[in-house]
């Protein structure tokens, strides 16, 4: 018989050992292939300490194993003679790496991997499933150590009474059947685990040897069966699970040959998808009105299986071996398991959010891989992507309950954002159905977490969701809470139009900036979002996020985007001002529509379910930067609207305002000029002015450079607001308030400053040094951080 594509136990020997009594027995495996000869007289103390099965593995003689990393799931069961007592343990995340010659170069188990433990009582009437830290299986290079004793000892220390009772009986003299299993879950070729005499490869392609709930299917796994006697003879003899080995079907994407007749990678992913779909179908038999711990463990294990499936699908797409239809079938299976997960959550199940996020990320990765493949999707495939994305959003909506934490909500919505953006890249559109599904998702998230967000902001806020209208009024009157809600619950959208950085840099260089300065400024401009690249489609046609800004402003307003800089000009009936778009997001219906100024000084436009967050921007960034280059000063624009002008060791930190820049004239030749302020730097009206050659002008106001400043204020329990029209920061405390006007200049830290910072900084890395720095009798503060020191003047 031809040799299979396999990994064999080196020397065809398994060693069973324990420290108690110096127990050590080496068992030859070729007497009855597929079995481990009986092991007698195992010390009773070792069964709950360090009873270990050890063996080395290598590529079987004659195998053709492609270089790469292969992933596996391992497991063991122990079944007591004369009773129904049974223990099953499984571990995922096992990997072996082979070089081009078929040598194993490394073996490992992913950090943080857990073991799933299932147990059954002596009378068979009670079962339990728990997840514990993996102490069962360890790998060093090509050496496997299965330390059953260490895992059983940890089970004894668990809080599960059924499992405690079960493991306690292991210390008494008894005989047991046991099995050791290894199943490939990823890699380029189907590998069988077994042994070889040099001419024949023996393995055991078992039907699923795991009998208890909570364990994933080991059907098709390679297995070794054995019997052991603890404190006595084992008695009887083990029976192999099958005869001579057959090649386990290939599981991962990629190449590789040998053994199995050269199955292609597309059928491989197809087969794994079919197996996963069967697992999902089994989950659909759960009573979702009475979700048990066993159900939860089963769902998580299928989620883990789905994550492997997603990874193999991506690898197959990248290698050109998985076609679009197969990939979309995989996504459909992923959405099916998400629907099950949502139903179980609504039934009271608490599913691990990390597993859910990894599953969602699998959809994103598949869509991204299809996009990068560059083959394009046909109309039917795009419609499938559209439908699957909507189904995904509906399923995720079911994951939000009143026990969902803020961090879980944020991570789920981040994952959903990635799914939507990747779907749009491969051809889906943000049509009315998809937008409605997304709005329903974030609205459900808000309804379940609003109270927690309010409490996290201010422990005295006792807020519960009542209805959309009431919440809109609430958030209109509490912009700090509105800002927190937006931070946690909004689906960020990517723009399909990016800044042409080559063209922008060329324009900046031709205006007098050197190459380095032009490159930095171009990079700064590229961080902002072009609203014309975010589109919504409905029965009336297509609109962009730029159009939603106009609708939020009311009739008579226009919004335009500059192709060279990506900056946006807003024109209303009474004023004109430039802005940079920080982000665009789908938001809940509870977010008030129209225009709102947020505490950090940014502005929010909400219309058609889309929120656009903007910060002030220069009216002519090219002319502005060019004029400053004449003073050998570098300019940088930050995402919060800050403008940093550096010359030698001193930094000027400012921000433009949202005020009307005036009407431009037809004559636009000349240079940008600057007007300096007079008077006290604590005066709210104290500001520099930028004058453009077309007759327009902007105020350039002082701005705190330290990005952690506002977080520092929030963490100290203070409310605040920033007026971009003056630069004044108002800080509220127990019904009173104080105004502070930042200085324009940020100085580097001296050694004394650094010592002060280390001794006084808060959790954000910010420290405050009081003083009267302008001698007006009002307390000022020096804001000290790693970015330097900057005074904020107390406003009289």
What descriptive keywords fit this protein?
single chain; 796 residues; alpha+beta; 4 domains; eight-stranded mixed sheet; 17 helices
Structure commentary:
The chain is α+β, with helices and mostly antiparallel strands. It has four domains: 14-260, no CATH class; 267-428; 498-703, no CATH class; 705-796, no CATH class. The protein is built from 17 helices and 38 strands. The longest helix has 27 residues, at 293-319. The radius of gyration is 33 Å and the shape is elongated. Residues 665-679 have a biased composition (Polar residues). Residues 665-686 are annotated as: Disordered.
Q: How many strands?
A: 38
The average pLDDT is: 86
How helix-rich are the residues, as a percent range?
25-40%
- State the helix count: 17
Termini gap: 95 Å
Low-confidence stretches: 243-267
User: Biggest sheet, in brief?
Assistant: 8 strands, mixed
Dominant shape: elongated
Structural domain tally: 4
Into which percentage range does the β-strand content fall?
25-35%
Overall structural class, as computed from helix and strand content, comes to: alpha+beta
How much is the radius of gyration in Å? 33 Å
